[in-house]
C-alpha cells in the first residue's frame, strides 16, 4: 500500500492515541511498551492524554503507586516509563550494551568494580527494608564512603538500575518525587517471544515506522530487530512515498486530526530516528533550542509540528501561557491553537 506523507502522519496520530482512548494509564503504556520519561511531569501528561476521557496525572501516579508502571533506563541510558515486565524484557537485550557504552564514563568517575559492588550491596540491603528517595540513597552511599558528587551518584543509580536491581516506582506525598524500589520481575523465560512482543508494541503504538526507527529506538542491531519483526505477526508492510515501513494490521487512513498539543519529550517527536515527516528543520531547531537535549512541548496541526507551547511553572496568578508558532498558519488555526492551550487540563 502506497501512503503519502499526510496519510502516514494521520495513521501515526491514530496509532499514538493522540485523540485519547478507552484505556487505563497502565494499558496505554503496556500497549506502547515504553514512553520517553526523562521529564517526569511531561511523561505523566503524555500518558494521561492517551488514556480514557477524564484521566489526569493523578490517575497516572496512582498506576505507579500500585506498581503497574515504573520508570527505568531500558534503552540507551535514557529514562522511560514502562511496565515491570517490559523493563525486565528490554534490559535482557540492552543491559550489557548500555553498561559497555558507559564503561569509559564509569572509569572517569572512579566507579571501579569495587565501588560499584559496595554501592550495590549497600543499596540492596536498604531497599529490602523500604523504598528510598534519591536523596536518601545518595546520603546512604556517602555514609558508606562512596562519593556521589560530579555525577557519580546519578551514574551509579543508572548502572544498578540497568543491572535490574531497582527502578523508580511509587510517589512520595508531594506527588513530585518517586521512590527507588527493588525490582522483582526478572528476565523473560522466552526471550524471542518477548522481543517479538516489543516489536509489535512499537509498531502498534507508532506506525508507520521503519526498520531504522525500530533499531534506533531499541539500540539493537538491525539483524536482531529484523528477525523479531518476522516473528511478530500482524505486521503489514506499506510504503511512505516509496520507502518501506510497517503498520499493525491493514491500515485505514483517518481524516484530519486538527490541533493537538503534546508535552515535552513526547514520542510523537522522539519515537523515530527520522523526524522530518512531522517537523521541518526550522521547527526542529525551535523544539530543541541550542541543541541542548531538552525537547519543548509541541503544537501539531494535522500531525505537523508548527510551534511550541508551555504553561510556566510559577506561582504567579493568573499564569499566562507561552506560545511560539514557528510555521505559518491561518488566523483561524491560530485561534484554535490558543484555545487548545488555554484548555490544557494538566497544568
What's the short version?
This protein has 347 residues and is α+β, with helices and mostly antiparallel strands. The chain is 45% helix and 17% strand. It has a 4-stranded antiparallel beta sheet, sandwiched between helices. A 3-stranded mixed beta sheet has the order 1-7-8.
Question: What percentage of the residues does DSSP assign to strands (E)?
Answer: 15-25%
Widest beta sheet: strand line-up:
9-10-11-12
Number of helices: 15
Largest sheet: 4 strands, antiparallel
Over the alpha carbons, how many angstroms does the gyration radius reach? Answer: 21 Å
List the secondary-structure elements in sequence, H or E.
EHHEHHEEHHHHHEEHHHEEEHHEEEH
User: What is the typical, i.e. mean, pLDDT?
Assistant: 96
Class by alpha and beta content: alpha+beta
Shape: globular
Give the termini separation. Answer: 41 Å
Number of domains: 2
Extended strand count: 12
- Helix content bin: 40-55%
Poorly predicted ranges: none
Amino acid at each position: 500500500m502506497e501512503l503519502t506523507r499526510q496519510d502516514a502522519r494521520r495513521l501515526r496520530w491514530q496509532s499514538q492515541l493522540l485523540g485519547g482512548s478507552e484505556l487505563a494509564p497502565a494499558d496505554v503504556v503496556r500497549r506502547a511498551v515504553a514512553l520517553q520519561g526523562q521529564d517526569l511531569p511531561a511523561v505523566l501528561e503524555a500518558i494521561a492524554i492517551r488514556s480514557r476521557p477524564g484521566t489526569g496525572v493523578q490517575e497516572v501516579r496512582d498506576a505507579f503507586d500500585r506498581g503497574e508502571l515504573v520508570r527505568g533506563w531500558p534503552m540507551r541510558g535514557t529514562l522511560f516509563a514502562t511496565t515491570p515486565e517490559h523493563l525486565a524484557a528490554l534490559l535482557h537485550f540492552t543491559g550489557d550494551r548500555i553498561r559497555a557504552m558507559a564503561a569509559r564514563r564509569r572509569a572517569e568517575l572512579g566507579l571501579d568494580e569495587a565501588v560499584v559492588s559496595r554501592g550495590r550491596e549497600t543499596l540492596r540491603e536498604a531497599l529490602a527494608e523500604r523504598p528510598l528517595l534519591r536523596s536518601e540513597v545518595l546520603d546512604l552511599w556517602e555514609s558508606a564512603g562512596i562519593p556521589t558528587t560530579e555525577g557519580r551518584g546519578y551514574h551509579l543509580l543508572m548502572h544498578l538500575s540497568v543491572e535490574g536491581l531497582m527502578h523508580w516506582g511509587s510517589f512520595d506525598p508531594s506527588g513530585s518525587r518517586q521512590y527507588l524500589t527493588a525490582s522483582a520481575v526478572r528476565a523473560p523465560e522466552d526471550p524471542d517471544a518477548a522481543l517479538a512482543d516489543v516489536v509489535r508494541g512499537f509498531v502498534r503504538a507508532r506506525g508507520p515506522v521503519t526498520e531504522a526507527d525500530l533499531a534506533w529506538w531499541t539500540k539493537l542491531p538491525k539483524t536482531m530487530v529484523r528477525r523479531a519483526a518476522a516473528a511478530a505477526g500482524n505486521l503489514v508492510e506499506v510504503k511512505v512515498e516509496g520507502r518501506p515501513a510497517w503498520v499493525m494490521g491493514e491500515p485505514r487512513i483517518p481524516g484530519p486530526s486538527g490541533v493537538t498539543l503534546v508535552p515535552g519529550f513526547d514520542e510523537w517527536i522522539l519515537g523515530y530516528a527520522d523526524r522530518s515527516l512531522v517537523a521541518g528543520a526550522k521547527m526542529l531547531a525551535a523544539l530543541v533550542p541550542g541543541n541542548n537535549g531538552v525537547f519543548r512541548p509541541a503544537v501539531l496541526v494535522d500531525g505537523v509540528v508548527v510551534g511550541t507551547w508551555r504553561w510556566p511553572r510559577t506561582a504567579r496568578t493568573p499564569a499566562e501561557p507561552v506560545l511560539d508558532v514557528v510555521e505559518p498558519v491561518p488566523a483561524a488555526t491560530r485561534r484554535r491553537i490558543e484555545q487548545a492551550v488555554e484548555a490544557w487540563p494538566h497544568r
